[in-house]
Structure formats: structure tokens, C-alpha cells
Write a structure and sequence with these properties.
The protein is 41% helix and 15% strand. The protein contains 16 helices and 21 strands. Strand 5 and strand 6 (85-89) form a beta hairpin. Belongs to the 5'(3')-deoxyribonucleotidase family. It comes from Corallococcus soli.
Amino acid sequence: MRPQYSGPPPERGLFCNRTLNMRAIKAVGYDMDYTLIHYRVEAWERRAYEYIRDRLVEQGWPVADLTFDPMLAIRGLIIDTAKGNLLKANRFGFVKKALHGSKAMDFDAQREAYNRTVIDLADRRWVFLNTLFSLSEACIYAQLVDRLDAGQLPGPMGYVDLYEHVRKNLDATHMQGRLKAEIIADPERYVIDDPETPLALLDQKSAGKKLLLITNSEWAYTEPMMHFAFDKHLPEGMTWRQLFDVVIVSARKPEFFTTRSTLFEVVEANGEALLRPHSGPLNRSKPYFGGSALELERHLGLSGDEILYVGDHMFGDVHVTKNVLRWRTALILRELEDEVRAIAAFRATEMRIGERMLKKERLEDESCQVRLELQRRRHQYGPRTDTLEGELVTRLAELRTETEALDAELGPMARAAGELSNPHWGLLTRAGNDKSHLARQVERYADIYTSRVSNFLFATPFVYLRSPRGSLPHDPSLPGGTPVFTTGDGAGSGPAE
């Protein structure tokens, strides 16, 4: 009897933008935070928020009553530092939803502010929320915009000045290390235990792939966190250090991938981590500080598409490695699991929306034809039917009534669709009926994307991941408007290589 293999739950799949043969990958590099180690987002971000707020209180700002709102921001939003707004844009850079501070902008105000605006992330005016670590920053900035508008903050100060002040205090919070010390002291409170992740890496290592850890976190944080997350799930006597061929901390990504920097060996002495300049081959038993991707490639004897890098930061992990080094890339989107489940739960309503939209399109098409017939009659040109003008006017009124009734039915369903996963912003990968700006970034720079590293378990180290055929507006459709060549929801489409 053949063994039966069950596939992963839909929300834990590996989603492919560009065909990737894992058998051709010789080395797999990993980020740590929100990649190999997943945090309880609300607990971490609430604590980070409280540290920023408390620093502001110490500086005399009247903000002690502010509290973290986990629904106010999601990954992939854009802060408009010039206007004090949180934005969700579609793949073309057009704004689809906006909050000024923490309050939704109405249609007219949003149109006036952004009708002629196309977001270009190269402009420093825009701050893209690349990672889950950005949520506390976006939340407190939005709330402070409300206070600034009410004249309750020290001044004079504009929205740009306010953002820079928030950013400075956030950086200071991380530099002081108090938050990380708190997490090291109580990791169960902040870390989601995933025993499958070490097994996935053991599979890859046993299949002959070199494993790399490249993290911006310092050694004093990396070592205890990796010990907590990995060692209890590894074979007896094995530690996380033995999994990796190269460990690099304080890597300064994205500069690690684009510039050259001195490489240091981390030397542990009397409970402290000291740095010693390093030259020559890398020793797998020693952790390193800094360095560069080019130096790492020389050590491995590998380059380009022989290396897969897995991380959660759209720019620092995925964009740069793809653009500069041509490494293969995998993006970790933990929120994807809730998103896929929400889409599945909404499927029946989505089908009803599709059916009613088809009916609405037929009514609109007939209405357009009737209006054109009336126009030609009144201006005496072109071919016309024998239908009486009064009958045409009556029919046009009937069509308008039917369309209004459909709109009344569609309205609540459309609003529900726009609030899936988050009442302000809806789905991560959608902006209205289009792909979100985040989804477009995923599509451009991530060869594959998935919710967690342990999803590689379902695929094995030998999988050949093939991208679906991309659909175009002129592709033939099935009943209900679904393209024959479907690519799935969100950022799951892309050309095969």
C-alpha cells in the first residue's frame, strides 16, 4: 500500500510568484525576528507602544491616557508624513482608503487630497509599513496627529516634525534595549512556540543545504531567543548553533546586502560578548558580527540563484536581495493565515456578490443602449429601432429602479467584503477589487511567500514550486466572471520563469 500524504491547510501553503526548484537551492538564509521566531504581535507591539508613549510623557507631552489600538494599522499601509494620514494604496499607487490621524476621511476629502497623487515610495514623504514591528509606530503617530490638530502638543510642529519625533523615540527605545531585556526575561509571554520550525530546518540541512542565520538583532538577544525557540525541539544533545553553517548578527540589513563592512568574530568572555576583527574562512562554530553578503558568497562558493533568503521585511530582506544580489527570495507574512481563512469564510457571500454584479452589469448595459437610442432620436442621427420613445423612457426608469434595488442589496455585502480581517483596512492583499500596494511589492520581489517557515515541512526540501498562469482582463471567463486561468487571491500571480 502506498503511503498517503495530506497537503497543508490552505492557509499554510507556499504561494509561488516565480517558479522555484528547491533542489537547485544550495543554501538557505534566514532572518530571525518574525521569521524563525514569531512574536505575539499584540503583546509585543503594545509594549513597544507603551515605551514610546512613556518616553513622550517624560518629555512633558500630555499623552499618558493614550492606549494601543491593534486594529488601527496593518502591514503594507503608507504614512503620509506631509499630511498626517495613514493610507492604503492599490498596486498602481493610487490611494483607496485614508485616515487622517485615527479618523476615516470621507470620499470628498480623500479625493481632494489625493486625486492627482501617485505614491512613489522613493519619495521620503511616504513611509511604508514593511513589517509587523511598524504597527506601534503607526498607531501612536495617528493618535498624536489627533492631538496635534487639537492643539494639545508642544509646538510649533508640523506633521513631518511629529513623525520624526516619534521615529526618534522609537529608535531610542530599541537602542536602550529595555524592551528586549523584558522579552528575554519572559519569552513565553511574547513568543509563539512552533516546534515544526526546527524540524523544517533539520530537513533542509539533512538534504545537503547550508543554513545561514543573518539577523539585525545583536548577539545578546539572538542567542537566548534562539535557544528558547529551538533547543527544546531539536534532537537530544543538539543546539540551534549546530543547525547553522554561518551565524551573522547585527548585520545592518539592508546595507549588509549592498555595501562592504568589516567582519568581526563574536567572542564570549565572562558573560559578555566581545568583538574581534576576523579574516580568512568562516568557522561554523563561531558567530559573527557585521560583514557583507559578498564576503558570505565567497565563503560559501555560491551566488545568485543558488541562495534562497527568507525574511519578513519587504525592503530589508526581500527587495534588496532580489534587486542587488539576484538571490531567490521568500517573504514571511504571518497575517496570511487569518487572511486566507477570512476569504474562505466569506466565499458564499462573495459568490452572491458575483452573481448580483453580473445582473447589475446586464442592467447597466441595457440602460446604456436605451440611453443611446434616446440620444440618437433626439439628435436625429444614426440607426434607430422602431420602439416608441415613451416605451424607451419607461424602460429606462424601470432599469434605474432595478439597479437601485440591486445596489441596496449589494451595499452591505460590499462593506462586509471591505472589512474582512480589519474594520478600517480590510484584507492585507486587496485594495477594493484590486491588489494592494503591498501585494504588488510581494509580487515583484518575493519568489514565494508563506505564513511561516514551518510551512516548508509540507513541501519538503525537494519541491518544485510552479507559479500559476497569470490572468489578464481579456482572458475568457467562467460563469460568475472568474477567469479560466485563475491565479488566486492577492499577490499569488506571476509569470513563470
